[in-house]
Specification:
This protein has a two-stranded antiparallel sheet with strand order 1-2. The longest helix has 33 residues, at 104-136. The relative contact order is 0.16. The chain has 5 helices and 2 strands. Helices cover 59% and strands 6% of the residues. It has one domain (26-136).
Length: 141
């Protein structure tokens, strides 16, 4: 049985939109996108693992998928276009992964890396919000 889940990036939450509007920090502009990419990557890897070895109705094998994000972000950073319109073009996307050797073991390693990356991003966001909290409270907790 072939599963084709709907994998897409959710719209940014009102809280995320408010934070990036009130505090236009480049870090707070980039980190929500990076978290979206990590979340989507976890979903895609899960689908790849679930569908490994499955076959489409037409007899073709399941084609693993991956998330494309870092390359687009790298281009934006090189062009110094970290603005809201530029960032919308850097949203993570799901694409076919034609690499050889994308078996379950490779997928599990990718999932482990993604979990660690997600945890690091959450820590950075927490630290950035703590700094903003200190600044808004004149350095008092």
């Amino acid at each position: 049985m072939h599963l084709r889940p709907s994998l897409q990036v959710r719209e940014r939450s009102p809280v995320s939109q408010a934070i990036t509007t009130i505090f236009p920090s480049p870090v707070l502009q980039l980190l929500p996108l990076a978290l979206d990419a990590a979340s989507l990557r976890q979903q895609v890897i899960g689908a790849n693992i679930a569908n490994a070895g499955s076959v489409h109705a037409d007899g073709s094998a399941w084609q693993p998928r991956k998330v494309s994000f870092e390359e687009g972000m790298r281009k934006l950073l090189e062009q110094s276009r970290i603005t809201p319109p530029g960032l919308e073009n850097a949203r993570p996307r799901v694409v076919d992964d034609a690499r050889a050797g994308s078996g379950i073991d490779v997928q599990v390693v990718g999932l482990s890396q993604t979990v660690l990356h997600h945890q690091a991003l959450v820590k950075v966001i927490s630290a950035e919000l703590e700094l903003l909290s200190l600044a808004s409270n004149d350095g008092k907790k």
